[in-house]
Design goal:
disordered N terminus; single chain; five-stranded antiparallel beta sheet
Length: 362
């Protein structure tokens, strides 16, 4: 499985476009994650797979440590090539299993060309080579309804950047992030294409599940990136800072192009800020919310800010060693099985502190 990861990483490095004239921004962080798994009385085996930071062309990871009082922590690759932390505790003696990870991160802003003249339609060999990224998953579906909607949005457009922009704009205009009106809008618990399409709302995973389904229906390879936003408002606070996800789609001669239509929706569409949604909206953004900023609509098509950590790529993950309960929907935090059954009786404490990039680079 490590070979898969290397191929994916190579495609990112080789496919990256030339840097923009303005130097990309950078940010540095010291990050800590603590997972606490409650062990029921009489449990014979606890297995924990947990997200660890992925290193790529925009993420430099230093001083990574993975520890647990319950045993040795290993690192394996999953079916999408992600590095995953793994702990296997047999006959646990305590009523709680703790896993800790700590690392330094230098993150660089992603700036990617969205000049449609720089790309072309996918060739047959590219479709074959990237077939994995054209396959639906449990909650990212491709059916007749999705295909018909995609055709109505994209029309006869075969240029992947132009087609992806049409899908991006349609999603932006037709779906609203649930945090804008938490009394009436809700997110699905799994990140679902059909939920997002039926309700016209959801969270980042719902938004990007729908985008991915429409893109794949249009012949555009996509992959979903799971990470966390390193928000200034939570700097140094020991809480679960949740997760965020975004999309990359593939354009020949350009490579993987990132986008974040859910954040574009926050910044790019007018809505009333009030006491019920103010904190949720603030915590949903990477750099803070100061009102509508429609320049973010163009920015988040091809660019990703520097205040993020990447935890994993893809959906329907099979770990190594494999879990007993079938593929995991995603891995933005952890996946736990106790005596062969998935358990949700665990918590995460996610803490980060912004530090000087210069200091980390030494």
């Amino acid at each position: 499985m490590r070979q898969v990861r290397l191929v994916m990483l190579s495609s990112v490095l080789l496919g990256a476009s030339a840097p923009a004239a303005e130097a990309p921004k950078q940010a540095g962080f010291h990050v800590k994650n603590t997972f606490a798994v409650k062990v029921p009385k009489g449990a014979q085996r606890v297995r924990v797979w947990f997200a660890i930071p992925q290193e790529d062309a925009w993420s430099t990871i230093k001083n990574l440590t993975l520890t647990s009082d319950a045993g040795k922590v290993d690192v394996e690759d999953d079916s999408w090539g992600n590095r995953v932390g793994y702990l296997d505790v047999k006959a646990p003696a305590a009523d709680k299993v703790l896993v800790r990870e700590e690392f330094d991160l230098i993150r660089t802003e992603m700036r990617t060309s969205t000049d449609a003249s720089a790309t072309r339609p996918l060739s047959d060999w590219e479709r074959t080579a990237l077939a994995h990224y054209l396959q639906p998953t449990t909650h990212v579906v491709v059916n007749d309804r999705i295909k018909a909607l995609a055709a109505s949005i994209v029309g006869n457009e075969t240029n992947p950047i132009k087609a992806a922009r049409k899908i991006y704009d349609w999603t932006l205009q037709n779906v609203d992030y649930w945090v804008k009106d938490p009394d009436h809008l809700k997110a699905s618990p799994v990140g679902s294409t059909e939920y997002c399409l039926n309700t016209k709302t959801g969270n980042c995973t719902d938004f990007h599940s729908l985008f991915a389904s429409l893109a794949m229906s249009s012949g555009i390879p996509t992959r979903m990136i799971y990470g966390s936003l390193l928000k200034p408002t939570l700097n140094g606070m020991a809480i679960d800072g949740s997760y965020h996800c975004w999309i990359q789609f593939y354009a020949p001669r350009v490579g993987w192009v990132p986008l974040d239509v859910s954040l574009a929706n926050i910044y790019g569409k007018d809505f009333t800020l009030n006491d019920k949604n103010r904190k949720l909206v603030e915590l949903t953004t990477a750099t803070g919310y100061k009102g509508t900023d429609k320049s973010k609509v163009n920015y988040y098509f091809g660019n990703i800010d520097e205040r993020r950590v990447v935890w994993s790529i893809g959906r329907d993950l099979v770990f190594e060693p494999p879990q007993d309960e079938g593929p995991a929907n995603s891995l933005p935090k952890a996946y736990v099985e106790i005596d062969g059954k998935q358990s949700s009786d665990w918590t995460r404490e996610f803490t980060y502190k912004e530090v000087s990039v210069k200091e980390l680079a030494l």
